[in-house]
Amino acid sequence: MRFLRRLTRRFRSAWQRRLPASFRRGKLHSQLVTFCVYVTVFLNILYGVYLGRFSFKRKKFVFSKGVTIYSLCSATCFALFYIWNIYNEISTGQISLRNTIGIYCYMNVCVCLFNYVTQWVKTLEIIRFQNSVPLIKLLDSVDISAIIVWRAFVYSLIKIVFCPLIAYITLILYQRRSHPENQWTSLATVKTMLPLIVSNQINNCLFGGLVIANVVIAALNRKLHGIVKEANMLQSPVQMNLHKPYYRMRRFCELADLLDELAEKYGVTASLSKKYLQFTDWSMVMSMLMNLLGITMGSYNQYLAIADYYINEEPFDLFQAIVLLVFLAVPFLEIVMVARISNQTFMETRRTGELLQRFELQHADARFKQVVNAFWLQVATIDYKLMPLGLLELNTSLVNKVFSSVTGSLLILIQSDLTLRFSLK
User: Fold this and answer.
1) C-alpha R_g of the chain
2) Residue 35's closest CA among 136, 184, 168?
3) For helices 185-234 and 28-47, what crossing angle results, to 10°?
4) Which of 178, 186, 290, 305 lies 20 to 30 Å from 98, alpha-carbon distance?
């Protein structure tokens, strides 16, 4: 065990020496976030939901006529292609209510078209908001460990990359099982997956913003916790007898300056992350509604297949049922992850208020008392709650609400189906 620990330490130190100097100085999170922002803006332009671009000459986001023309053309082609497919399948009777994946795909097409309209209307507001966010400057001024950065990065990858990848692999298996004669399985899978990816892009932007806000506020809380311990220690009887009043006054002024900086960073992070929800609230609500309908419909179709097997003695395809179950678990997992990161950010903001209330201000400096009270008032005024359109709060209770809604709808549908089945016999 000791040999393994020594080997691990040597490998870790050697790996850290091979990193760039800026990464070792704590700039890893800034460069990683910058890379993610570039990728996100590129995907938004690629999917046609963003009509702006980043001007390296002016060093800010600007409205682009070329990107607007491309977005209009891509959205038009997208709409015409899928609307024609929907019309063709309805007119020829190829689509049915038992086709869970096909209906779920077309529901996400509606979300995509809705996102195009809402995002285009808010383009100028989004550009002004992006230019007002001091993201890199804020990240450079916050001390965040590399472990926390990589943990947040991996968590984002699970939501943005691995969940669609699981759905894609599931769809390939489903297509090969349902249509073994079709040689273009991958193209049919891409046609089904594209609306799911495009409709989720705006929500992924919000998810990434919440991950960054959670990491920043958690780092601010760690710094605030150290200030609380030092300020309370300076007011203990031992420290008051040990240090002169001038030293204590000077140290309290230094701590007040640090609290001013923390209050400013907290206000920027909390207010801007709440404000960003205004640009994604419609997309979030529509996606949650479609996921709720898709999960309910898929679960009901699974029940119908089981009921037909036991009551009507029809064949039951276990492999296809497992594939559909995995496919339906992906949107539910995405809801769980969004609710979890939102709840974590909310708990970090509550912890900020709790830490501010731990200050003992009886023997503190007057300016230090003023800064603490102003910081606490700022935390109470922001009242960090994420509620898209004021309908549902994004926290862990959202998962229970989704589960109870699906369960309640299924009970009603199953009861109606059983009543109809046994009344016909």
Assistant:
1) 27
2) 136
3) 140
4) 186
